[in-house]
Design brief:
single chain, alpha+beta, five-stranded antiparallel sheet, about 20% strand, globular
Length: about 130
């Protein structure tokens, strides 16, 4: 984690740039990762490797978003990665890299449509 602190300001600045991609409805919210600490915590809560993406995020080669329920905005549900240059949805993963539920994926697809993100490459069987 200490090695990643060098990226803190870049992560904060990038979040400011991609904040317009945030989206919510009555049930869910999708928002950009704001800090190195949030990415490390997400990785820990979700038991996956998103913390390894910190250098990529700092260099604007990856954008990571968190799907949360409105009622529990600090509880991890789904971690989402997009290519910020081509605006392509690359992955969406729950705890232990499980696929999102059909309800979660429906909201992610709605987000993609509203924010003009290409989700055609992501195929799940839910």
């Amino acid at each position: 984690v200490l090695d990643n602190k060098e990226y803190e300001q870049e992560i904060i600045d990038f979040e400011n740039m991609i904040r317009p991609y945030n989206y919510e409805n009555y049930d869910y919210v999708i928002r950009a990762a704001r800090t190195v600490e949030e990415l490390v915590n997400e990785s820990s809560q979700m038991n996956h490797c998103v913390r390894n993406y910190i250098p990529k995020i700092a260099h604007h080669k990856s954008a990571v978003f968190f799907l949360r329920e409105q009622s529990e905005k600090e509880k991890s549900l789904v971690t989402i990665e997009i290519d910020p240059v081509d605006k392509v949805l690359l992955q969406a993963r729950r705890k232990d890299n499980a696929e999102p539920t059909s309800e979660q994926m429906s909201f992610i697809n709605e987000w993609c449509t509203r924010r003009m993100i290409d989700n055609s490459a992501l195929t799940y069987t839910v």
